[in-house]
Amino acid sequence: MDSIYSINIERAVLSSVFFNPEELEDILGVLKPKDFYLPAHKSIFEAMIRLHEEDMPIDEDFIRNKINSKDIDDSVLLEILSANPITNTQAYVKEIKDASVKRELASLATTIKKVAIEDQITANEALDTIQGELYKISTNSATSELKDMQTVTGDTLAYIEKMKKLGNKFLIGQTTGFESLDKRTTGFNEGDLVIIAARPAMGKTALVLNMALKNIERDKGVIFFSLEMPAEQLMLRLLAAKTSIPLQNLRKGDMNDNEWSKLTDAFNHLNTKKLFVDDGGSVNINQLRARVRKLAQNEDNKISLVIIDYLQLMQGLGNKDRHQEVSDISRGLKMLARELKIPIVALSQLNRGLENRPDKRPMLSDLRESGAIEQDADIIMFVYRDDVYKQRDEARKEKEAKDRGEDYKSKFQDKPIEEAEIIIGKQRNGPIGTVKLDFHKNLTKFVDKENDFSGSAPIEVVFETVADVEKETNIDIPNIL
After folding, report:
1. 20 to 30 A from 393, CA-CA: which of 20, 23, 205, 260?
2. Which residues have CB under 8 Å from 80's CB, separation 6+?
3. What are the structural domains of the chain?
């Protein structure tokens, strides 16, 4: 057959539908009208789809009523009806799909020439256009087939056996960096889209930096897209967390000999690790996808986690409203996570509305453009530190008293270690609840609470239902659904 079309194969598939209309359901799982090369064949296939949707017979008379006889030569329909029946229709369908994709790639070559030479746009804009078109082709060409029960049960048994070989460990995916969180989530798993959201100054960037540090120390590769902070500032925070040297001292270079020695050791250690930082300040979903794929294709990089700080700073594609752009971005991140089989962690802002509530602990409805994000995410976590609000409240009272000419002594005690709450608002395959960590302010570092390791007290988790409590008591058993 011709590499980009075959009239005979298209005719054979359409003839097959005439002889056996039940086959149309299976064909529609792979083909769309645009996949047919001959315009007349495309029109006839569209007519078949409309008749199928209307629960009408798919035969010669009804097809003629659905198509415009001026656009389609009568001989085309007669050739289809007189074609020899075929037995392996799906093989023919795949040939049509393959040829359709090749035609789209050939068309893309023309687009590449146009945007690269003829259009008056920058190289980056040309790359965005080309990557977007290629992504559409790859997405439209992907097909999936229904799995029968034997396949599903076989895959599930293989999964259980794989988990058993791990020795019933609670950490199945990539570590969150905290034992208490790992026990609640089994880690961040293949294909997960994880959203970590908070109001400003709660420490969400510090939290994901701690996660990145723990993963690279396990010899995993991490890609960090920093859209708000330069790479040098990220590294200073990372070093403060790793060396326990206060961040302000690192910024000023104010360290004693012992701290300088620790810093040198930390640099030597980190230089052997796989952390890749993109601090360009702006990136769209096409650019991010291309950069992640490039690094992930090299197995030596061991890419196991992608972090984006933060989602609302990503650029959209085209002239869509912001809600639609965020929807496209979150969906694109979820599809990329599934494609590469790695977790993607994206930070997100919260609406100001929660500031007006007495209890300022975040909820799912506080997510900006929450509809798409909430739908696509597998795990949604919120970072909350009550002391941040207590300090602001006391500062406000002090200012108001001063404005009235009164004295007011702040009741807030500035502690070097504050309690932080990681609120799991959504978890597709596990319980929701609250895990408490300690936040070391001068190190911008989150750590498990000491009693998590001493055994002197249980890990404090708040559950929503009795079923969640029952699920927690069997946390070592992997969730296979």
Report:
1. 205
2. 11, 14, 15, 18, 44
3. 7-141 (1.10.860.10), 169-380 (3.40.50.300)
